[in-house]
Amino acid sequence: MHFHGYLWLGPKAEFDKESVRRPPSPMEPAATSPPDVVQRYREAVTEWRTTSVPPLETAYWLLKPATLVRDTWEHPEHAADWLSERLTEHVPHLASHTLPHATETLALGGDVSLGYYLSRPRFLSLAVVTCSPNRTMPQLPCPTDRKARDGAEPAARFR
Asked: What is the reported pTM?
């Protein structure tokens, strides 16, 4: 088991667009579907895997490109430290904020996902996702293994 860290900073309106945060349906629209339904489906198929906007379900980060992985750790304490460091960096008034349950949650195979409004309209999303396996979706592949299998260097390093 290891952990991948993700960070997204962007407009809250983009974060609120559910269509780019939800994986497309495995079933294509029927031939009789309205054109706008077909168009939304095509956009979802095209955009969902490549957009850096956080997915609705934290575990789905594992289906995103390995280039979105900010860092990777073997120990939950290091992943929780990264979350605290990112909070200090982006939300200074939370500098003394601790994440008492993050290490425990990660050690048990859970994911940790945080979101904060910054100066409007910006929104910060932080996530640490447990990998190999993920407790809620054990069938999901490791994004860095996928990239390594494709003959490229993994985007993240283990610490």
From this structure: 0.84
